[in-house]
Amino acid sequence: MNQHNQSSLRRGQTVLPKHRFGIGMRLFVSFVIIVGLAAGASVVGWLSYARLSGELEQIAQSELPRLSLASRLSRVGADISAVLPSLARSERAATYEAARAIYSDRLVELREVIAEAERNGIGGGELDALAEEITDQVQRMDGAVGVRFALLGEMRSLVDELRWVQADLLEEAGPLVDDIRFNVEKELADFTGAAPLLAENQKSEALLTVVAQANLATGLISRVSGVTTAEDMQEAVAFLGDSTDELAARVQSLTDWPDSITVRQLAGRILEIADNRDGIPHLKQLELEALAEAQRVTEENQRLVEQLGEEIRAEVSETERNAEAAAVRARQAIETGRRWLLLIAVLAITSAILIGYFYVYRSLLLRIRHLANAAANIAEGKSGTLIQPQGRDELGDLATALNIFRRTRDDLIQSAKLAALGQMAAGIGHELNQPLAAIQSHSHNGVRLIEQGKVEMARQSLEKIKGLTGRMAGQISHLRRFARRPETRLGPVALDEPVNAAVSLLSHRFEDEDVVLEVEMPTGMPAMVTAESVRLEQVVVNLLANALDAVSGLDTRHVRLVVTMQGETVMMAISDTGGGIPHSHRDVVFDPFFTTKAPGSGLGLGLSISYNIIKDFNGSIAVRQTNSTGTTFLVTLERAS
User: Fold this and answer.
1) Which residue among 269, 323, 500, 612 has the highest number of C-beta atoms inside a 10 angstrom radius?
2) 0.70 cut: is pTM over it?
3) Which tens digits make up the pLDDT trace of 224-250?
4) What DSSP string describes 275-336?
C-alpha cells in the first residue's frame, strides 16, 4: 500500500481503489464457474432421479411406516420386559405401586401401538390377544403381591412388638437377679443349711437361661422374618424350635416363683410370636408362597412378552425384505445416472482443486492465516509483531490496519502508564525532595565539621549523603523501568518483587491520604508466577490506585493485599473498604474508557489494560465480591517452577 493510503489509515480513513480486480471479483468468477458445473450436474441428476422417485415413494408410503410401527412395538415390548422384574422384587407397597404405574403406562402404550399397527395391516389380531393375556397376568400379580405385602406388614408389626417384649423382659429380669443375689448373700451370712442356697441357685440359673433363650429366640425370629428361600426357612425354623422348647421348659421351672410372673408372661408372648401355627414362622411361610406365586406370574408374563417379541421380529423381517426389494430397484435407477454424473464430477473436482489451491489456499488462506497469527500475537501483547502487507486487495488493506492497531494499542498502554506516573508526580517529588533536603543539611554540616577538624564526624555525614543519593538513584531507576515499554517474553517472576515495587511507587499516597495498607505474602519460598515483571507491576499499581481512590474521603480507609498459593495457581486478592461497585457497573468495569472519576482524573483504561495483561499471562482477573463495605479484586496466575 502506498504512503498516501497509510497516512489516511492513521487518520482513521481507509482509501480503497474504486476499480480493481480484488477478492470480490475473483470470488464472483469462481462462483460462476462452480455454479455452471453444478447446474449441469443438476440437469443430469433430475433426469436420472425421475425414475428413482417412484421407488422411493413406495418405500416412504408403505414400508417405512410399517417398519416404524414395528420398531415402536419392539421398544414398548422391551420396556415392559425391563419393568417386570421390579414388580416381583418390590419390598414396599410404594415401590410396587410406582413400578405398577410405569407398567400400566407401558401396557396402555402397547395397546395404542398395536391398534395403530393393525390398522396398517400388522399383526392380524395375534398381538392384541397377547396384550390381553399380559394384562390378565398382571392382575394375578396384583393379587399375589397384595397378599405378600399384607403378610410383610403383619410380620413387621410382630417384629416391632418382639423387640419391645425383649426389652421389657430384660428390664424385669434385672431386679429379680438382684433379689436372688441379695438372698444368696443373706443365706451365706445367716447360713441355715444348703437347701435355701440351692433353691436360690436354681432360680438364678432358670432365670438367666430364660433371658438367654429369649434373646436367642428373638434373634432367630428376626432371622426367620428375613429369609428369602425355603431352604433357609427350614433351617431357621429348626433352630428356632430348639430354642423355644428350651425357653418353654425354663419358663415352666419358674412357676413356683411368684415374683417371676411378669417374666413368664413376657417369655410366653415370645413363644406365641415364635409359634409355627400362627406366629411369624407361619406368616413367613405364607409370604414365601405369595412371593413364589408372584415369581411364577412374572415368568409367565416374561414368556408372553418374549412371544410378543417374536411376533414383532417376524413383522420386522417381512418389512425389511420388502424394503430391500425396493432398494434394489432404486439402486438400478441410480446406476444409470451415475455414469452421466461422473464426467461432470471430474470437471467440477478439477476446477475446485485449481481454484482452491491456486487462489483460495495460496492467495487467501495463507494470507488470512498469516494475519490471524499476527492478530493473535498482538492480542497476546507481543508488541514486536509486524505484518508485511501482501497484494493490492482487501487483505493488504487489513494488514496495514492491523499494523496501525498494534501501534495504537501499544501507545494506549504506554499512555496509561505515563498517566499513572503523572498522577503520582506530586508524591514522586515529595520522595525526592526529602532526601535532597537531607543531603543539603548533611553537606552543610560536613563543611562545618571539616572546618572544625572533626574529620570522623564529617566522614559520617558524607556516608549519609552517599546512602541518600543511592536511595534517590534507586527510585529514579525504578520509575524509568516502570515507564519503559515492557518485554513481550514471559518467564518466572517472584510476585513479591512487583508487589513491593508497586507499593513503593504508591507509598506517598498511602501516607498522604492516611490509608492503612496490609500486605500478606506466603512465608518461606516466594510465590513464583509466569508473567513479565513490568506489566505485572503495572497491574498491581492500577489495582492499588483504584483501591486508594475507592477509600478516599471515607472515615475507614483500609487496603489489603493478600497472596496465596493453591496447587498450580497463585492468587492475589486486593480489597478496600470503599463504597463498592454499583450493580449497574459490574459488567462494564473492565471495558475500555469506562470510568466513574471526574473528567481529567483518569482515562478509564486501568482495569481494561490490566484485564488484557493478565489474559496475556494465561491468568484471570475478576471482581470477587463487592458491597457497601468494600470491594475485592482477585487475580489468578499460573504458578511457575
Assistant:
1) 612
2) no
3) 878 888 788 888 888 888 888 888 887
4) -TTTSHHHHHHHHHHHHHHHHHHHHHHHHHHHHHHHHHHHHHHHHHHHHHHHHHHHHHHHHH
